[in-house]
Design brief:
The chain has helices at about 10-25, 65-75, 80-100, 100-115, 120-130, 150-165, and strands spanning about 45-50, 55, 135, 140-150. It has about 160 residues and is an alpha+beta fold. Helix 2 runs antiparallel to helix 3 (about 80-100).
């Protein structure tokens, strides 16, 4: 698979991005299961690829939730069972709010905030989660390219250009 001598990694990234979008749009044509593929595809790739620098992030969505909830109950002591019921209610409500439209979501949060100061609680949670240890993250690769099938004439033209060099 590494025998693509004159194709740059940027071209491959751009083509893979576009081909994934094409495949996703044609998903309805694919049956569930494993399928063997043995095709030759000649494509033309034009566009740009932005490669961002590496950095760090606080992994808020990669935390093992069941373990975190078990530890939450453990650290709650005698109030653990009640805390778990409250946590379940909070998760259920958060899921319901997440599925609302933007305006309805804002309205529901305002309703809850009228009874309990949700914005202060949210700020406290964000502060505490922000103190989790950061993890390294590779910089994003963001291709903006167009992929089109190449005619056999264009293929021969490219091959002759390469051969002339």
């Amino acid at each position: 698979m590494n025998n693509l001598p004159s194709v740059s990694a940027l071209t491959i990234a751009a083509a893979a991005n576009q081909l994934a979008k094409i495949a996703k749009s044609r998903r309805s044509e694919l049956a569930v299961g494993n399928h063997n593929v043995d095709d030759r595809l000649v494509i033309d790739v034009k566009g740009t690829v932005e490669v961002q620098k590496d950095g760090t992030h606080v992994p808020k969505n990669h935390i093992p939730l069941e373990l975190a909830f078990a530890l939450f109950v453990h650290h709650s002591g005698v109030t653990g069972p009640a805390a778990l019921k409250a946590l379940k209610a909070a998760l259920t409500t958060a899921h319901a709010i997440h599925n609302l439209g933007d305006e309805a979501k804002k309205e529901r949060i305002e309703q809850i905030s009228a009874v309990a100061d949700l914005s202060d609680a949210l700020a406290l949670v964000q502060k505490e989660l922000g103190s989790l240890p950061p993890k390294p993250r590779r910089g994003a690769v963001r291709p903006k390219a167009e992929v089109s099938e190449v005619s056999i004439d264009a293929l021969f033209e490219t091959l002759s250009e390469v051969a002339a060099k």
